[in-house]
Amino acid sequence: SPLFLLQATLNFFNLAIAQTSSSGTQQVYSCRNLGDLGSESLRQQRNSLLDSLTSQLGERYTGYIHTRSTKNKSGEQVHAIVLCPPGIEAEDCGRCVKKTIPYLLQNCRNQKDGVGWTTLSNYINCMVRYADSDVEAKYEFWGSGTFSSLDASAPPADLSPAVLKLGKELAGKIGSDASQKYASGKTIYGSDKRNIYMASQCTPDLSAENCQLCLNRVASALENLTKLGKVRGTALSINCYTRYDHDP
């Protein structure tokens, strides 16, 4: 697959820094600017909790984990979230998570809240997030980023409306899926009848309303990529993402 041009997205709170490796793996992280973890005990809790994540991707794998550490003597606790597409194998999700954890810890060493995203291939991607407070079922938009291809040969006038239309259709499907909050689909666009494939996902803890809000936000970033004619693009946040591609 072609190398990706990784684009940093500046949002209201901070800058999500995107990077690529020689193997083609794409990664982006964001650290929330709320200060540092309050104690060494809390940092150790975070590190141990993140190390335990792959062991929780077992027989009941759904692509989503929300877990928490045991409270220390001061009542402090760390929460962690994993999000992978529900259609991939637990082993592949685990490989992605293992790749993300050291990257996240390297870049968000002491912050109270941090998130990292990794894409290993068209199908295998994941998000790992930690926080010193309970973040489940909370819609927030402080961290975001985009991945896009170097290839910008898609006709923007045709691509943009096709991606936006398909994105709305998938958002409608996700709104009726109370369990996984994931949908994929394809459409044909342009005079040369090109196929475009898309997948969208929200963290399953979000309400249908907040999932819709999140997907609407990332749709704006995705539209910017289509206007550049990018043949492949992903727009993501801490609660959802949408990706499109000309290859299935």
From TrEMBL:
Residues making up the signal peptide according to the UniProt record: 1-18
The entry's keywords: Repeat, Signal
Segments forming domain Gnk2-homologous: 24-135, 140-248
Protein's name according to its UniProt entry: Cysteine-rich-repeat containing protein
Source organism of this protein record: Senecio aethnensis x Senecio chrysanthemifolius
Taxonomic path: Eukaryota, Viridiplantae, Streptophyta, Embryophyta, Tracheophyta
